[in-house]
Amino acid sequence: MKKRTFITTLAATCACVATYAQTYNVNIVAPSNGSNPNVSIADQAYNGATPVSPFAYSGSTWNNVNVSSGSTTASALTDTDGVGSSVEIAWTGSNSWSFDNTSLDLIDNYSWSNNASNTITFSGLGANTQWDIYIVSQGDSATQGGSFTLAGNTQESSGATPSLTDWTEGSNYVRFANISADGSGEIAGTYTFATGGDNAVINGFQLVAIPEPFTMSMILGATSLAVVLVRRRKARS
């Protein structure tokens, strides 16, 4: 193989590995309650792009989960590459309702709790793996958002503007960055009302795996090799 061809192939491989992140998308579906129930987001083949805004519908595979009264478990989630898994999300205090946001389908249906203390658990993630976790939290009233705590870190979605037409961190979703699963592949937490709120709301989730150190070292090693080959070629010419 010519060096130029090798380097081109190597660079393309590095780019593909660097941009891919294992992602799980979950959309809450209200089976029958509210003004706009049963809003599902169609499963589509993942296009390999980084999650957008941060929740991209087009080109992403979504797991549509019906809410059960009392507690809900979303199990055996499919990732955005269409591959099944043992990843599971379970939360307590769930009831379902819906409204019509008109712009953000993911917000139309939600799980809600009027309990001050609720649990939420992400499992099947792989021992000691790291994740960015997004939780969408916006009800049909300005008093409905949520305060979430994972790994001792608390983030709040105010839920103050049900009519928002774009994604705004702290208003209709929260983001936990670089959260580590424990030795059994689990991240456990709690959630409650947002400040001044009377219901805690969950509309959906997005879990994005952070590349492992081994994967990053492969990328850096391959990049370094490409640089060395380029320099040797220049030295011989």
UniProtKB/TrEMBL annotation:
<protein>
    <recommendedName>
        <fullName>PEP-CTERM protein-sorting domain-containing protein</fullName>
    </recommendedName>
</protein>
<feature type="signal peptide">
    <location>
        <begin position="1"/>
        <end position="23"/>
    </location>
</feature>
<keyword id="KW-0732">Signal</keyword>
<keyword id="KW-0812">Transmembrane</keyword>
<keyword id="KW-1133">Transmembrane helix</keyword>
<feature type="transmembrane region" description="Helical">
    <location>
        <begin position="213"/>
        <end position="230"/>
    </location>
</feature>
<keyword id="KW-0472">Membrane</keyword>
